[in-house]
Amino acid sequence: MALSLVAYIREFARVEWAKKFLAARTAPLVIPPYFRNYPELTGKTCTHHLFCMMACPAPGAIDVIRTPEGWQPRIHVGHCIRCGLCVEACPNGVLSSGRILESMFLDNTRLSFSFAITVDLDRCMGCGNCAVACPVNKLIDAQMSHGGRASTDDLLLKVSDGKCHVLHVEKCTGCKTCEHHCPNEAISVARLLEAVHSPEEEPWTS
Amino acid sequence: MRIEDVVCPFCGCLCDDLVVSVEGTKVLSVENGCTLATEKFTGDHRLAHPIRRTGGSWEKTTYDVAIRETAEILLDAERPLLYGWSGTFVEAQTIGVHLAELLGAVIDNTSTVCHGPSIMAIQEVGHPGCTLGQVKNRADVIVYWGANPIEAHPRHMSRYTTFADGFFVKSAFRDRKVIVVDIRETDSSEIADEFVKVTPGGDYAVLSALRMIVRGKGELVPEKVSGVTREQLFRVANICLSARFGAIFFGLGLTMSRGKYKNIRNAIELTEELNRHTKFTISPMRGHWNVYGSNEVFTWITGYPYAVDFSRGIAFYNPGETTSVDILRRKECDACLVVASDPGAHFPRACAGHLASIPTVQIDPHVNATTHLSRIQIPVAVTGIDAEGTAYRMDGVPIRTRQLFSTDYPDDVAVLGRIYSLVKEAKG
Amino acid sequence: MTQGILIKNAYVIDPLSGIRGEVMDIAIRDGRIVEEAPPGSQVIDAGGCLTLPGGIDSHSHVCGTKVNFGRYMSPEDMRAGRTSRKGVMHVTSGYSVPTTFGNSYRYSTMGYTTVLEGAMAPLEARHTHEEFTATPHQDMLANTLFDGNWSVMEAVRDKDVKRAAAIVAWTLAAVRGFAIKLTNPGGTEAWGWGKDVANIHDPVPHFEVTPAEIISTMIQANEILRLPHSVHLHCNNLGVPGNFRTTLETMDLAPPAQGNRQTLYLTHVQFHSYGGTTWRDISSKSEDIARSLNSKPQVVIDMGQIMFGRTTTMTADGPMEFKLYMLHHNKWSNHDVELETGSGIIPVYYSRKSLVNCVMWAIGLELALLAKNPWQCLLSTDNPNGAPFVKYPEIIALLMSRRMRENERKEIDPRTEHYVPLFALERELDWYDIAVMTRAGQAKALGITRIGKGFLSPGAQADVAIYPLKPDQLDPSVDYQQVMAGFSRTLYTIKRGRVVARDGDVVVEGANSTIWTRSRVPPGYDMGSDPEFTKKFDQYYTVRLRNYPVQDVYLPRGVCIETEAAL
Amino acid sequence: MRVILKTRPRKKPHVPIEAEGIIPQNFLRKNDLSVYEGNRERHLEDLFFVTVEGPAVSPDQVEVILTGDTGRIKRVGEYMNAGRIIIEGDIGMHCGNFMSAGEIIVRGNADAWLGREMRGGRILCEGNAGDYCGAGYRGEKRGMRGGTVEVMGNAGDFVAEYLSGGEVIVHGDCGDLPGVEMRGGTLVIGGNCSRPCGNMTGGTCMVLGDPGELLPSFRRNGSTEAEFGGKKFRMAVFRGDVANRGKGTLLVREDLKSSRP
Q1: DSSP string covering A84-116, please?
Q2: How far is CA B149 from CA B199, B200, C339, in A?
Q3: Chain C partners of D140 at a C-beta cutoff of 8 Å?
Q4: Quick one: which of B57, B195, C173, D160 has the fewest CB in 10 Å?
Q5: Pair A103, A36 in one domain
Q6: pLDDT in tens for each of the 428 residues of chain B?
Q7: D2 φ, ψ to 5°?
Q8: Quick one: A71 and A128 in the same domain?
Q9: Closest Cα of chain C to A145: distance in Å?
């Protein structure tokens, strides 16, 4: 015991060792361009299509908030799994992470999606939380978002005969706000997502 | 025919934005209303004509006979009780109170089994409240305490609080924090930012602890109060203190648990304390659509919101003594008129038993649990469907209901008015 | 109702008709005063007793949401003044906030036939009207609150007086209101955030308009609409020591009168005439206020007298009630009304042992004694804020008798005299002054002489009060007890040609009218079809626009005063 | 003078009787008192067999004795200011309301609001008392202001609510929230209770049984010695209610204190 202690002290007291120890440097940590980090804002304008939320597989990892400058995606790093699907899904390139945007451009790929909303009529109380909170409804009908009165049938969701009804499923952007805010777990959104090659025009500018 | 801006006659939310399609005397569809509203409009269990019990069975009778017998029963009684009133409109409630003063009766409304304790607390410390629009337009913190709005007031959150965008709250559910306090997880706690789980009967202590923190005496709060950690209490207090406008809504979980009105009093005093730092309001989640109207009417005529005893000529009020449940439990009353409510379903069994043993008359459109306890039932038009009148929303806003179609049923005012005339005639 | 009444040997004071005390007969037919009574008329011998037009209260809180909440929260107040059903009289309860029938019967036995409810939130107007019908012995009018009205404030911000006028016209017609009431303008909106405005130039949060701008714009709007009454203002900073400056600045906002009517009515000015900086050095500034009033014929005030004892304060001025609550720590209710206004209620006890209360008591009396023109200072307690209206006879006696004031001086805090000029004032008001301050002045200020209120010459509504007082045999400065007793209980109160009360008992069921105003505006100014107005309504109110207006059924005997707006 | 009131049998024995007229001073001159049965006004003789023995010149010398089925009679002894009332059985609500002097003895149980808003005098209840014993009226800021209420048995909830003066002694157990809103006076609880003195702002409450879990808003402030029923106890002193102004005193037995907030 005592001997080995002496051996240690002798080893570490050597000048060469001390020099090496103090002078050693590792290369600075650089994130390589192909590495996917948490998505960042590119500065492009968000149009509140909420494709990012829809594509995100991690619950609670991304939402889109209203700031004084307009809509803006917000990443919750604790939840984000850095899959990059939101970057791929965004039609306006608002987000970036690694070389995703670049490779999409080169490969001419995009994500294609559609949704199915199901309402469990036994559970639904017709409280209207989903229809009032729905961001799509909000854009269509201000009266709906200010307290649940439908002034048009162009809405995505609407309460009639005491239950929530899906009027225009094609308008759904898959953000799942309805699902998250249903107290009865009566509504759910299923997304069908696939990557497709789009040889011709850019479909998202329309 | 589509009728717009129909007022829902179900709960205290009194939503007035329903669109109802009717054909003749049938409701085809209801838009914007919740499940409960739709059932109210489309349900059909109406009694076709007055009935009276002879021996053990019911027989059909006429309005004239039923009304005359009711008047006789009431005139005969030494301690008649006129109970209910929450499911009818203000104009009928007014006649009810005048009938009670004429008879020397006790008149009481359904507050007795729901928010009576809230009223008693308000009578001790007042009530810092506001209309629901004030919450919708301003609140950034919403607290539901012992209330499960999704079950009892389904549209409360989407129409007035959590989800409805307001003038100063552009993106409602993102800009608002929701705190739910309850003894168990509920549908409403599902969507809360902070769920405070209190051990049953522990609300009073939790409210006291929160008051201490707001008063700057937080260092004295023990590690755990009624199952809630000190840490969470501080977190909740800080959310409240940093609110620009906070609104507390409380329900039967607070009024009907141990301590009853003292719980509400403590909650109101917490609200007052918070007002020294920011803006806070507190409101009871009133159940029946026009229970608040009956409180208002009783108050402007007698001075008291419920449980008014006219047996000595003057108005006397003392919950615990003049409240229906207490009167029935002590078997005091010797006749009862039930209007627009269902004590048979909501009262303790002993009370219902006494109702069955005395002459009980029910004025109600539907056959319900009280029918089985009654001697006579007089069906009437349903306010908000085939009759119209005034109702008060849970926050005190009066709204006139709409009549969707007319039927042959007389409304409550007609029936009660005739009973009143007969009693007045007899009293001279 | 072809039956008439002939009142003989009445000692009549009828200021609006220029009668200053004359024994004469009054003939009534079909609810109106006429030259000659129809044959077979009931004859009432007044026996030389004081006969006045029916009393008019131009500022009282008797009906509506907050009044009823005052009752609701005060079972202890209800224990006082309980009477049982008797003849045509319903059960009554309450002292400071009596039940509606209690208010009505007590007013009636005091000879009052017309009462203006001081504050009605438009959203809850239906409630006020329901209580009006349960106050059957007085014709009722409702001041309608506009102090924190978002649409109005936006019009003020945009300097669009015409739009402000159009909003007022639409709202008054929708809620069957009578006049524009501003309570702590801007302050009630600030109270939505728990704040208040500090003075009339302090901007309202978010809306960035000042109380002064709101007041000035509303005065102009009122004149554009040619409403019978002027703007009815409860100034900012009520009850704050040193607030007399705010009041004086506010009075300066009143433009000169056009014609014979005031352009600004300041209510309960006693509460707005405080000097000093804290409750410790509060003093009376009644002289400053009266000086300003005496130089401004375009301003009318009412006293807002306080009287010692228990009462309940209630006002749309939410922030002020909270301040008061923090002083008393008893109980406090508050009720903010979306997009419109607020309100607060607390019980108080005015004590002779409290120097502050004594100073307040003195200020009210001083205002009445220092105002040269009784038409400009009307009698009120801001019922029930200063005291319940049943104290009016006592106030009348105090104003008519210096001796009574001296007697009271012995009972109150002895330091009071160092803070108030009251005891140096020798003036004693006479019967004529009192007649002006309790009916004629009110009728003129409210602009309801046009419907026959406040006078007794032919054509007038037959609202008459006969008091058991013989002015030629009575020296009010000595016999103040008798004056008090006499004004408390009429021999006869006649309302629209019917005897409604006799010797303190109400003798008929009663059926009153509600008086409201409608200004006709050109179609372009109809807010009911204004896209911006209706859009705001849809999004921010929690009641649908179509469910907002008060339906005709709520005014079984509505009397509408129509005007042509100069838009 | 002794006035003996024995109840007559009634057709509807559950209908309450209101008899605020039954106070010693009223029997000095007259016997034709009114009482109410439900909404009907009755003569005293309609409901009671009345026996008067001996003379009296002042109310102090009057003793009223109630026997029979007295459990539904309310407001006996209201505004009493002298003399003595002895109730052989149970008594209904509001016995001794506003009483200012004299003595009431209840041999049976008393219903709720025994000695409500009492100003002086003494009430002894040998059985149990209901809720709100020695309490106040709804909405009123001050309850009982003077005198003594002593209950040999148990009492219900909200005992001595708003107590402002005088003394309430319960030898047995109390229900929930005894001494709630207390602002003066003394409350002694011989047995157990739960949550004593919520929101108190003044006065002293002593609990000799198990007080259950104390509210979190009471601050420990030393110990003291107290005497009750001839025995001495070591008491823990708490000041509270801190959630309010914290000026009241709550004494709890050191050895029985089951838990500390």
Answers
A1: -HHHHH-TT--EE-TTHHHHHHHHTEEEEEEEE
A2: 20, 19, 25
A3: 76
A4: B57
A5: yes
A6: 999 999 999 999 999 999 999 999 999 999 999 999 999 999 878 999 999 999 889 999 999 999 999 999 999 999 999 999 999 999 999 999 999 999 999 999 999 999 999 999 999 999 999 999 999 999 999 999 999 999 999 999 999 999 999 999 988 888 899 999 999 999 888 889 999 999 999 999 999 999 999 999 999 999 999 999 999 999 999 999 999 999 999 999 999 999 999 999 999 999 999 999 999 999 999 989 999 999 999 999 999 999 999 999 999 999 999 999 999 999 999 999 999 999 999 999 999 999 999 999 999 999 999 999 999 999 999 999 999 999 999 999 999 999 999 999 999 999 999 999 999 999 97
A7: -115, 125
A8: no
A9: 9
Instruction: Give just the sign of the alpha carbon dihedral B380, B382, B387, B393.
Output: positive
Sequence-ordered strand ranges (E) for B287-395:
308-309, 316-317, 335-339, 360-363, 376-378, 390-392
Q: Do B258 and D37 touch (CB under 8 A)?
A: no
Q: Which of C69, C73, C76 is the best residue to mutate to test the D interface, defined by the most D CB atoms within 10 Å of its own CB?
A: C76
From chain A, the residues in CB contact with C540 under 8 A are 146
CATH number, domain at C237? 3.20.20.140
For residues C33 and C42, is the Cβ–Cβ distance under 8 A? no
Taking contacts as CB-CB distances below 8 angstroms, the residues of chain B near A162 are 30, 33-39
CATH 3.40.50.740 for domain B47-114+289-427:
yes
Domain count of the fold of chain A: 2
Q: In this structure, which topology does domain B116-284 adopt according to CATH?
A: Dimethylsulfoxide Reductase; domain 2 (3.40.228)
- Least Cα separation, residue D197 to chain B (angstroms): 12
Does D152 lie in the same domain as D102? no
Among residues A107, A134, A164, the one where a domain terminates is A107
What does the pLDDT read at residue A13? 78
Which residues 322-341 of chain C have a CB within 8 Å of chain D? 330
Tell if the CB–CB gap between C542 and A142 is shorter than 8 Å. Answer: no
Ranges assigned E (strand) in B285-354: 308-309, 316-317, 335-339
Residues of A with Cβ-Cβ distance to C545 under 8 angstroms: none
Cβ contacts of C333 on chain B, cutoff 8 Å: 122, 126-129
Count of structural domains, chain D: 2
Count of CB atoms situated within 10 Å of the CB of C402 = 17
Name the domain boundary from D59, D75, D108: D108
Q: Say if the Cβ atoms of D216 and B209 lie within 8 Å.
A: yes
Please indicate, yes or no, if residue D23 is contained in any of the structural domains.
yes
- Work out how many domains chain C is built from and give that number: 1
Which residues of B, range 89-148, sit inside 8 Å of C by Cβ? Answer: 90, 94, 98, 101-102, 119, 122-134, 136-138
Q: Work out the minimum CA distance from D72 to partner chain B, whole angstroms.
A: 9
CATH of the domain at A176: 3.30.70.20
ipTM of the complex in this document: 0.91
Structure token digits, residue D217:
């808003």
* Residue D73 CA neighbour count, 13 Å, CB half: 29
Q: For the range B171-175, what are the long-range contacts, defined as Cβ-Cβ under 8 Å and sequence gap of 24 or more?
A: B171/A65, B171/A66, B172/A132, B172/A133, B172/A145, B173/A133, B173/A181, B174/A63, B174/A65, B174/A66, B175/B140
Domain of residue A51, residue span? 31-107
Residue C88 lies in a domain: yes
Model pLDDT for residues C228-279, shown as the tens digit of each residue: 999 999 999 999 999 999 999 999 999 998 778 899 999 999 999 999 999 9
Q: Return the bridge partners of D73, or none.
A: D17
| A vs D contact (3+ beta-carbon pairs below 8 A) | no
Could you tell me if residue D123 is inside a domain? no
Which residue in chain B has the smallest CA separation from A134?
B163
Supply D47's token pair: 């409901």
Interface of C with A in 462-481 (CB under 8 A): none
User: Do D142 and D256 lie in a common domain?
Assistant: yes
Same domain, A87 and A129: no
**Do residue D137 and residue D255 come from a single domain?**
yes
Look at residue B208 and give its three-state secondary structure. helix
Specify if C13 maps to a domain. Answer: no
Q: What is the pLDDT of residues C363-414, one digit of tens each?
A: 999 999 999 999 999 999 999 999 999 999 999 999 999 999 999 999 999 9
The answer to whether position C555 is within a domain reads: no
What is the average per-residue pLDDT within C158-164? 97
Per-residue confidence (pLDDT) for residue A12, from 0 to 100:
77
